[in-house]
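So, does this match?
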Amino acid sequence: MAKMPYIEQEECTGCGLCEDMCPEVFQLNEDGMSEVHDPEGAPEEEIQEVIESCPVECIHWKEE
């Protein structure tokens, strides 16, 4: 099973940190909130760094 990042939209503040750290995976949507646009765009270690850096802890792993 592969791990895929996901963002709890209702918790996201749209701070842009995840996009700054890993634009290959994360982007801001039309509402100014973060979303995953390419879950396989970076190594798991890099995505884990973003998860740990999120100030509102709204980015998580889910098993696919």
Remarks:
- The chain has one domain: 3-63.
- The two ends are 6 Å apart (CA to CA).
